[in-house]
C-alpha cells in the first residue's frame, strides 16, 4: 500500500524529534508500504525567519515572503531524509518545485492547481522514501509560493489524492479530533470517527487539528484520512462520508476561534450594489470575509458589519479606507476583542431547536451574542473574547458531549 | 551598463549590514545601471545548519547536504530583495534553479555547465534589480546542487559572463588583493592591479579573496573583475590580462594556506602504472590532489607522498585504505600539521634564481621544506604549519613587496 504521512512543525521541532519521526517512517516502510512523507518547518523556524524579516522591512512583498519562508520546510525535509538514511533506509527529499506542486500565483496563500506525480513515482520505484516539503509550491511563472495556514495538511492530502494513496495519516501533537478543545473542556472526548462535512465546519471554525482546505480536498477525492498523535501509537480520528457512518450526531463538537475581528462601516447609502463594492474590493485584495450583517437603521442608510481574521485586520482596514469614496460610507470601526464559538453536527438539519438551545446556553451564562451565522450543520456566534472559555464549556455541557 | 555585484557572507551577516548593502545596490541602480546581485548565505547560517545536521546524521548524503545548505542563500536573497524594495526600488530574488544555473550532479562541488539568461533578462527589462542566490545550481535531474568553496564568486563571474556585464564587482571584507595577508604581514600592500594568471595562482594557493574557479572563468570569458570592500568606497584591485598591464612584477605576492595535509604511502611496487592507480581512485572520489612527490628509495620499491586539503583528509584516507590491495603498498601515514607558502609573479619565468632566493629566505629562518612544487609563475613549499607566519614574513621581506 502507498501511505502518505504528514508531520507538523512540533513533530520535527528538534533533532531528537526528527530522529523519532524517522524511526516511525522506517517502521511503516518495513511493514512493506511505500511511503511519501510531507513535513512542515521545524517548530520555531518560521517565527525566527519572520523576526529577521521584520528587522529589514515593515511591509515586505508577499513574493519575497514566500521565497524566505519556504526555506523552513526545505531545511526540515533535508534533515529528515538524512535521519532516515542514517537508519539504513533510502530517502530523497523534494521541494514543492521539484515535486511539481503547481499553484496559482497568489503568494502567501496560493491554491494548488496541479500536482505532478512522475518524480515521486520514479523515486518510489527505486525504493526511496520520498520526503516532500509541505506548505509550498511553484507557480506557472516558476516563482515559489506558499499555501498559507495549514498548508502542509493540504499538501499531504493533495499528494495522497494524486498518488491514490491507500491511507493518509496526519500526525499532530494531539490524539485526534475532540468534541471541544481539551485545554478548555477537561471532559472533552476524542472522536473515533467524524464526517468530512463536520470536520470541514470544525476546522473552519477554529479547531486547529486540520486545515479546512485539506478536509475539502480529502472529501472531494475520497482520501482515507486518519488524524493521530506523533507521540504515541493510539488510534486517532478517522474521517468518513456521513453515509458510511453508523449513527449521526445532532451535535458532534464545539469549536472556538480567537482569530476573528469585526469591522463596521456606518452610514452606507442604500443603493443597489453599493454594499457589494466593499466586498469586491476585499476580494480583490484576497481577504476572506466570514460573517456579514447588514442592518437598515434609517431610510436609505445602512450599517454593515463583517468579520475577517485578526491576521488580516490591518490589510482590511487599508482596503476599507481606500474605498471610502467609492462606497460613500461616513465612518468605520473595528473590534478585535471578539471570538467565534460554534456547534457542529451532521444531524442538526433534521432537528428543530438546536440553535435555540445554543442561545439559551449562552444566555444562561450572561454572554452577549454580537453576530450569528448558520449553515446546515453548524451555528456560530460572535461573542466577546473574554467569554470564550465560559461559552465553550457551557455548550459542551448543554449538548452533553462529554457523555460516552 | 550592466553591473554584476557579489556580496559575501560577512557583508550580509545581519539585518543592519543587509540594509547597508541594499543602499549600495540602489546607489548603483540610480547611477543608471542595470544591476544583478549575487549573494552568499548570511554570516553564520551555514555553520548553524551544519550544527543541526551533525546532531542528526554522522555522514549525511551529499545530495541532502546541498538541499539543506542551499537554503542559506535563499534566505539572504529574499531578505536583500525586501531591503531593496523598502528603499523604493523594484527587486526580485531568484534561486539558482529559478535563474537556471545548470550544473553537473557532483553534489557539494558541482561545476556550472550552462547559465540561462531569459529569466534574468526579463526581470531586468521590467526594471527589477535581480538578486540571485550564489553558490547554488540545479542539475539536469532537477536536484539542487552547490558549487563548493567560493561558489558565490563563481556564480557571480558566470552570470557576468553570460550577461556580458560591463563590470563584475566582488565585494568582500578586505580592500582588495594584498601582497600578503595583512593580518600576518602588517606592511603588506594592496595591489591596484593584478593579472588573471597571478590571481589564479594566489587564489589556488590560499589567498581567500577570490576562488580560483571564478578567476579561471573570468579569464576565459574576459569578465572585467574588480575586488573591493563592501565597508568603504576605496578603489580595490582590478584584474587584467598581463598584456594589458604596464609593468610585470617578478614576484607579486606571497600566499599561504593552512588547508593542507600530506598523505604518504610506502613500499609501493615500482611497476609501470601502479602508482597511478591510487590517483585514479582519488579522482573517482572527486578528491583533488595538489603536490605529488615520488621517490625510489630502494630497488623496485617506491614511496609516494601527496597533499590534499585538510577537509578531504578523512575521505582520502578511506580511499587509500580501500585501494591497499590494488596498489600493493605496505603502509600509509598522514600529517595535517603542515601548510603551504608560495610566491607568485607573472615575471618569474623570465628571471633566474627566484626559487633559490625563496629557499634561501626559508633557510635563513631555519624552516624545513618538506615538498616543493613550481609552475611558470609560482613556487610553493610545504612546511610545518607552526612556521607559516614566520615564512610569509620572511618571503615578503626578501622580495621587498612592502616597498611602493
Give a quick set of tags describing it.
404 residues, aspartate kinase activity (chains A, B), alpha/beta, Carbamate kinase, 6-stranded antiparallel beta sheet, lysine biosynthesis (chains A, B), kinase (chains A, B), homodimer, diaminopimelate biosynthesis (chains A, B), amino-acid biosynthesis (chains A, B), 27% strand, 18 strands, 13 helices
Any overview of this molecule?
The structure is a homodimer of 404-residue chains. Chain A is 34% helix and 27% strand. The first copy, chain A, contains 13 helices and 18 strands. Chain A has helices at 15-30, 45-54, 62-85, 96-99, 118-125, 151-162, 196-204, 212-220, 274-284, 313-322, 324-327, 354-364, 388-398, and strands spanning 2-7, 34-39, 91-94, 101-103, 112-115, 129-133, 136-139, 144-146, 167-172, 193-195, 225-229, 237-240, 253-269, 292-298, 301-308, 331-344, 371-375, 378-384. In chain A, the strands form three sheets. In chain A, strands 3-6-2-1-9-11-12-10 form an eight-stranded mixed sheet, with helices on both faces. A six-stranded antiparallel sheet of chain A has the order 14-15-13-16-18-17. In chain A, helix 2 (45-54) packs antiparallel against helix 3 and helix 7 runs antiparallel to helix 8. The longest helix of chain A is centred in the N-terminal third of the chain and has 24 residues, at 62-85. The two termini of chain A are 34 Å apart. The model of chain A has no long low-confidence stretch (mean pLDDT 91). At the A-B interface, helix 1, helix 2 and helix 3 of A face helix 1, helix 2 and helix 3 of B.
Amino acid at each position: 500500500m502507498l501511505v502518505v504521512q504528514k508531520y507538523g512543525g512540533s513533530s520535527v521541532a528538534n533533532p531528537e524529534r526528527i530522529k523519532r519521526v524517522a524511526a516511525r517512517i522506517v517502521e511503516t516502510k518495513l511493514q512493506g508500504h511505500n511511503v511519501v512523507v510531507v513535513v512542515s518547518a521545524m517548530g520555531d523556524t518560521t517565527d525566527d525567519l519572520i523576526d529577521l524579516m521584520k528587522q529589514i522591512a515593515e511591509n515586505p512583498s508577499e513574493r519575497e515572503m514566500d521565497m524566505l519562508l519556504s526555506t523552513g520546510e526545505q531545511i526540515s525535509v533535508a534533515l529528515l531524509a538524512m535521519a532516515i538514511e542514517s537508519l539504513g533506509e533510502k530517502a530523497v527529499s523534494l521541494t514543492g518545485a521539484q515535486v511539481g506542486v503547481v499553484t496559482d500565483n497568489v503568494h502567501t496563500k496560493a491554491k494548488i492547481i496541479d500536482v505532478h506525480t512522475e518524480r515521486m513515482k520514479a523515486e518510489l520505484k527505486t525504493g526511496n522514501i520520498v520526503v516532500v516539503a509541505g506548505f509550498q509550491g511553484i507557480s506557472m511563472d516558476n516563482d515559489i509560493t506558499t499555501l498559507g495556514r495549514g498548508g502542509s495538511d493540504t499538501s499531504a492530502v493533495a499528494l495522497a489524492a494524486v498518488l491514490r494513496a491507500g491511507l493518509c495519516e496526519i500526525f499532530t501533537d494531539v490524539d485526534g479530533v475532540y468534541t471541544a478543545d481539551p485545554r478548555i473542556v477537561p471532559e472533552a472526548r476524542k472522536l473515533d470517527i467524524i464526517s468530512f462535512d463536520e470536520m470541514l465546519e470544525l476546522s473552519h471554525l477554529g479547531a486547529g487539528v486540520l486545515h479546512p482546505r485539506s478536509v475539502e480536498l480529502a472529501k472531494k477525492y475520497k482520501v482515507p484520512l486518519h488524524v493521530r498523535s506523533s507521540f504515541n501509537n493510539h488510534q486517532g480520528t478517522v474521517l468518513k462520508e456521513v453515509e458510511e457512518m453508523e449513527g449521526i450526531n445532532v451535535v458532534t463538537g464545539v469549536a472556538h476561534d480567537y482569530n476573528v475581528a469585526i469591522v463596521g462601516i456606518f452610514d452606507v447609502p442604500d443603493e443597489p450594489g453599493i454594499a457589494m463594492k466593499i466586498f469586491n474590493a476585499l476580494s480583490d485584495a484576497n481577504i476572506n470575509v466570514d460573517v456579514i450583517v447588514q442592518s437598515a437603521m434609517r431610510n436609505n442608510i445602512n450599517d454593515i458589519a463583517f468579520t475577517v481574521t485578526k491576521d488580516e485586520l490591518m490589510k482590511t482596514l487599508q482596503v476599507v479606507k481606500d474605498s471610502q469614496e467609492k462606497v460613500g460610507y461616513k465612518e468605520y470601526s473595528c473590534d478585535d476583542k471578539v471570538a467565534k464559538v460554534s456547534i457542529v453536527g451532521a444531524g442538526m438539519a433534521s432537528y428543530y431547536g438546536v440553535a435555540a438551545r445554543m442561545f439559551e446556553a449562552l444566555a444562561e451564562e450572561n454572554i452577549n451574542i454580537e453576530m450569528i451565522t448558520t449553515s446546515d450543520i453548524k451555528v456560530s456566534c460572535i461573542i466577546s473574547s473574554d467569554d470564550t472559555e465560559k461559552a465553550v464549556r457551557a455548550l459542551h455541557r448543554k449538548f452533553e458531549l462529554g457523555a460516552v
